[in-house]
Every structure is written in structure tokens, then in C-alpha cells.
Amino acid sequence: MMQNRMVLTSTANPRIKGLIKLRQRSHRDSLDRMLIEGFREILRALDNDHPVEEIFTCPELYQGTNNEALVERAAASGARVTACSSRVFQRIAYRDRPDGLVAVAPQVRYPLSRLSPRSPALLLVAESIEKPGNLGSILRSADGAGADAVIVCDRCTDINNPNVVRASIGTIFSRPVIETESTTAIDWCRQHEIEIVATTPSANLNYSDVDLSKSVAIVLGTEQYGLSQVWLDAAVTRVRIPMLGQSDSLNVATAATLLLYEAVRQRGSQAQSATH
């Protein structure tokens, strides 16, 4: 175990003040840095070769037995390690029940031009998603379904928001997450012969009645306004989720999960058929 770490005990320390300022999007963007809080989130960053530059620790708040090994692994990869008193750490943490680990890392930046999907491709496009928790949950579902990437268009929330990282449980580091404009994403899908499947309550087809086993980009919009006309016009297929009660829409992250796992189901059935 690492010994004799400097322990920060004052919230007035400039490094602590700088860490707290990283909660602000403008400050994150100006420094091109993000916050990662939590054991699982930092572990996934390291597992996916996302560099961790600094890690702030508070052993008093550790909730597991592997925290110190994770800190040593981060240090071995080049991270600067700083211990904090419980009072200081409670100030820098943004969780209600912090587990004693906060890291600083470069922001997630993945250009669309770098994306090289498999065939058949499975992409999830999220347009103008407003709530960080929803975006994080979408990333988590995309990871679980083995999607090639999540493309965030015309963003309303910052993908590097600490609450996106938290809601994704670190899966923001496991799949390419790309920010771009809708028109750019549409052009890219067409160039790569990826069929655009738009979700809208006005569609005639149920999502389970269309072929999602081919290369598709499943597109979802905000709960309040739905998809913009640019995506509806670009879509080869429009689908809806049957709503049998009084509500006319589901939470966007729930909708994304249904569509992604329907694609997984269809692709699994197709693979099984091919083996018989």
C-alpha cells in the first residue's frame, strides 16, 4: 500500500477549489477535463484505457476492499494521488453517499469520422436529450446491448457532466460516444448504408414488427417534443412503442432499452437460425 501521501485538510486549498469548479460545464470545457466519481466508474475508465490524471481519495469513506488496489493501479498509470480529510472530500463529492474516490480525466471526445461500425451495425442516436440521468441510462443500455456507438445530436446536456458518468456507471468509457449535429449524423448514416429508424408515437408500425437485424441507427428524441422533423424526414422507417394506458410516451431511456434489446433479440434469433 502507498504510504505518506499528502492529506488536504482545507477546503480553501486551490486544488480543491479547482476540483469543485469542474462541476461547471464552462470550466470543464475550458480545461477539457471531466470528473469521475466512484469505484466502478474509475475502474471502467482504466479498463477502457481512458487516462486518469488525478485521483483524490478518502480512505475513511471507502465502501469496499479493493479501493486501494484501484488507487495504486491509477498511480501506476501516471495519476497523481492526493488524500483528503473526510470534511474536504464531502465538499468535493457530488454524490449523497460518496465512496472516497474522485478522479480528474480528459473529456470524452470521439469524432464521428473515427467510427468504424461492424456489419450489421447497431447504433443509438439520441437527439436533444435534456436530463443527464436519462443520457447516462441510455449509455448503460447501449453498452449492455453491445451497440457500436451512441451518437448524441444537438446536445442539450453535456456528455461529460458528472451525473452522466454516474448514471452510466462508467459505461461512457466502454462504447464510443459521439457528439455531432443531426444533419452530419444523417449524412454519415447514408454514406455507410445504415438505415435510420425513427421512433415516434405517430408511426403505424410497432417497433417489434420491423427488421432491426440489419444495419440500423435507432433514433430517439425528447419525451416532451419527440424527434425533430429533420430526423423524421430522413428516416427510412418510423416505429412506435404501443401505449395501452393514458400516457402517450415512455421515459426516453426506457424506450431506448426496449428498441436496443429488440435488435439484440432479432439478431440472436437470426444467428441461431443460421446454425441450424
Structure write-up:
By secondary structure, the chain is α/β, with parallel strands linked by helices. It has two domains: 100 residues, Ribosomal protein L30/S12 (60s Ribosomal Protein L30, Chain: A, 2-Layer Sandwich), CATH 3.30.1330; 163 residues, 3-Layer(aba) Sandwich (Alpha/beta knot). The strands form two sheets. It has a seven-stranded parallel β-sheet with strand order 8-7-6-11-9-12-10, with helices on both faces. A five-stranded mixed β-sheet has the order 1-4-3-5-2. It is elongated. The mean pLDDT is 93.
How many domains in all? 2
Report the uncertain regions: none
Strand order of the largest sheet: 8-7-6-11-9-12-10
Could you name the CATH topology of the largest domain? Alpha/beta knot
Q: What is the rounded distance between the termini?
A: 54 Å
Which structural class is indicated by helix and strand composition?
Answer: alpha/beta
CATH architecture of the largest domain: 3-Layer(aba) Sandwich
Helix share bin:
25-40%
Nearest-angstrom radius of gyration? 21 Å
The CATH fourth-level homologous superfamily of the largest domain: SPOUT methyltransferase, trefoil knot domain
Q: DSSP strand (E) fraction?
A: 15-25%
The count of DSSP E runs of length 2 or more, i.e. the number of strands, is 12
Overall pLDDT metric: 93
The outline comes out as: elongated
